[in-house]
């Protein structure tokens, strides 16, 4: 089976680097699946999970915001933050979720804070679902 | 000549000071190591994002995204990175002096520029001179995470996009080595310089299109430039503090040496005097 090199980098350093058979993720226009030999492409990513298929095994990475850059031999994911599922602090994510929900109840819509709380909630939910591998 | 006890007191207090500076030097050395490592860990991200941004921006030259085009300058923004605490030698004053001089040279009135300060020293410096500090952030950790400065970075970039600022410069000290740091001025926005050497461009497919990607990519790129500068200047800060503290310790040692010399001399003089007095007294009795 042909493989493609994947590297996930964040401002705090490289998070993941390996050869996989398929990368699938959610871009802002919809789900994307990338196999080796894909044409060069750039797409913005949403807060979501990146699934990396290697044989029968799957690796999950939670990313929040960023880009996917595809080249024939390589996929680069540039995200503002990214965590491999095994390294996610589930308790912290649960706490963050509660905090964000509380803020959403307190603030009115339209406000800047409301949008931030919404994003924080999305990130927390994403981390939780990646950590529990329910994608 | 100072009395024996005075000299002894000075020796003890200098010794205590040198213990403190020595400890501070070691703390800074540890932080400096981490700072340099952080700056290195950031390099791959920066290189990749620069590569992608450059190839997209060059590939779509015709697009006139506001962040890529020069416009008439009515107000200039200066982002200045300093530390929160002093005792770092000339680290802060170098950056502040250069920026202060540049502002005086380039602008006549306070309305022509705005200052965004990262770090307490820089903020206080410009505020006490009545200059226009629009945004500031203090209390940044020694190993800053991207999330910590994301707010101020995106606000700064936002001020450019909504037209409050027409260009943005960043001032920080660039880390060269443990003993050398260099004040650097970088033009952050509008983005015109993507660094030479990125000539080998890949032509990409854009999903959904180049315009929308630039919309998301450029702010992120500008924010990472700010973060990169912050990491760079944190490494410089710790290096500068380490050097300053080492110099202080060395000076204290020198001072202790010369003080002990005069202490011994004074003690010897006192002994000699005592002996002469005894001998004189004994001679008078004979």
Automatic annotation (TrEMBL), chain A:
Cellular location(s): Cell membrane
GO cellular component annotations of the record: plasma membrane; proton-transporting ATP synthase complex
Predominant place of localization: membrane
ATP synthase F1 complex delta/epsilon subunit N-terminal domain location: 4-82
Domain of life: Bacteria
SUPFAM superfamilies registered for this protein in UniProt: Epsilon subunit of F1F0-ATP synthase C-terminal domain, Epsilon subunit of F1F0-ATP synthase N-terminal domain
Entry keyword set: ATP synthesis, Cell membrane, CF(1), Coiled coil, Hydrogen ion transport, Ion transport, Membrane, Transport
InterPro entries assigned to the protein according to its UniProt record, in alphabetical order: ATP_F1_dsu/esu_C_sf, ATP_synth_F1_dsu/esu, ATP_synth_F1_dsu/esu_N, ATP_synth_F1_esu_C, ATPsynth_dsu/esu_N
Regions annotated as coiled coil: 90-134
Keyword Coiled coil: yes
Membrane association type: Peripheral membrane protein
Residues passing through the membrane, by range: none
ATP synthase epsilon subunit C-terminal domain mapped to chain residues: 87-132
UniProt keyword Coiled coil, yes or no: yes
Subunit structure and binding partners: F-type ATPases have 2 components, CF(1) - the catalytic core - and CF(0) - the membrane proton channel. CF(1) has five subunits: alpha(3), beta(3), gamma(1), delta(1), epsilon(1). CF(0) has three main subunits: a, b and c.
Family membership noted in the UniProt record: Belongs to the ATPase epsilon chain family.
Job description of the protein: Produces ATP from ADP in the presence of a proton gradient across the membrane.
Protein name: ATP synthase epsilon chain
Gene expressing this chain: atpC
From TrEMBL, chain B:
Domain of life: Bacteria
Subunit comment: F-type ATPases have 2 components, CF(1) - the catalytic core - and CF(0) - the membrane proton channel. CF(1) has five subunits: alpha(3), beta(3), gamma(1), delta(1), epsilon(1). CF(0) has three main subunits: a, b and c.
Cross-referenced CDD domains: F1-ATPase_gamma (cd12151)
GO molecular function: ATP binding; proton-transporting ATP synthase activity, rotational mechanism
Family: Belongs to the ATPase gamma chain family.
Biological processes annotated in GO: proton motive force-driven plasma membrane ATP synthesis
Organism: Mesobacillus subterraneus
GO cellular component terms, A-Z: plasma membrane; proton-transporting ATP synthase complex
Topology of the protein relative to the lipid bilayer: Peripheral membrane protein
Keyword Aminoacyl-tRNA synthetase: no
UniProt keywords, alphabetically: ATP synthesis, Cell membrane, CF(1), Hydrogen ion transport, Ion transport, Membrane, Transport
Primary role: Produces ATP from ADP in the presence of a proton gradient across the membrane. The gamma chain is believed to be important in regulating ATPase activity and the flow of protons through the CF(0) complex.
Cellular compartments annotated: Cell membrane
Main location: membrane
Identification of the protein by name: ATP synthase gamma chain
Pfam families in the record: ATP-synt
